[in-house]
Amino acid sequence: MIPNCPFRPEAITARDKLLEAAVTLVRAQGYAATSVDQLCRHAGVTKGAFFHYFASKEALGVAAADYWSHATGTFFAAAPFHTLGDPLDRVLGYIDLRIALIGGPVENFSCVAGTMVQEAFRSSAAIRVACDASMMGNARALEADIAAAMAEHGVTGTTAASLAQHVQTVIQGAFILAKAADVADGPDRARDALGHLRRYFELLFAPNGRLQ
Amino acid sequence: MIPNCPFRPEAITARDKLLEAAVTLVRAQGYAATSVDQLCRHAGVTKGAFFHYFASKEALGVAAADYWSHATGTFFAAAPFHTLGDPLDRVLGYIDLRIALIGGPVENFSCVAGTMVQEAFRSSAAIRVACDASMMGNARALEADIAAAMAEHGVTGTTAASLAQHVQTVIQGAFILAKAADVADGPDRARDALGHLRRYFELLFAPNGRLQ
DNA sequence: ACAATAATACCGACCGGTCGGTATGATTTT
DNA sequence: AAAATCATACCGACCGGTCGGTATTATTGT
Fold first, then answer.
1. What is the pLDDT of residue A4?
2. Hey, which of A23, A44, A55, B87 would disulfide with A59, CB 3.0 to 4.6 Å?
């Protein structure tokens, strides 16, 4: 989720530089394949600085997930779709924004939390929890709009929380399919998946033939 | 995708034992975090045997993806839902089977290809391609039934290939959300996601109010 | 005002251990 | 006997992490 940089403040302290490096390198190589030395090199910082700020590589992983959480949370909270009047339009607006963010190599639009949790869910409870918080936080930000849309359209048979989680599910799955594709095809695959997610919401919220 | 063992022939040769070990360990720890020594230990085989059969760790990764591909392909090809008369029922039957396979710790029902490609998509083209083939092969096996169902129900606006890929997307995403959850909650999260996928198909193929 | 003190931020050499991989030798199978 | 199938010992690079130290910036005592 979310492209690199523009909406994130420039990293000044060694700590911030390391977190930025973590986001970039973990996205491209994964957590385990990224070494502390490599992180330091990429951040232009020494190993001493690394262990001054982080007790361990695992601690950096947790901090990176939190950092990511905060960055994405801030970004989506400020997105313009929130001003739309109809709650369903806000939900679809979110999906459309996610689609718009897709482009370029996968590592530029994929999710740090989803990448990291896949590798560390068994070896590090702390990282798992931090990644879970990041993804679920992203889902929770949608819940109110989904709940409002459900009430307005009389949708039953599921919950807003479940639907919000499903949005995250499709996003994470889209990133995996995109990674498996050739660089050039990754974005199309991801957009295709989110297109189906969008249609699911359209169908779900317009069961009486409002569509077509 | 797919639980451990029952439908796979017992591993006898060192090669097969190593592939089995790879499936187990990569599912639980990821590719990068799994060392060659660990693979050998788990397989009850020496390092000499490893490098006798595989030129490198990367080569094992490719072979593991192929092995996985073959095992899952065989399993799903033999599944009973293929005998259903209505193509839509066959598609829903596939999803129901996927739901039924979910249970226990995530590493017992997650996908080797999806896990591996997330870590290696940039560092190893060979692994990326092998994982892509595995996941897309799984999708392609659904395509004919989806195409038939689309024709029968007059569904337009997308393609059978795109829908089949979307099934894989949701499955892969479900595994990630499940990994992020506490061990006990993982299966519920995954089933929940596949439930939404099922409802998407129900809605898509019954646009004129056949539902409810 | 200014020195003494202490906390913070960082540096880079170094450590034990593990990594993927190799070289060579011993069995077993054909 | 020749090829396939391992087993063992070993290699250099690199791993995460430690350590003694320094430069800079508050804080405090007088």
1. 46
2. A55
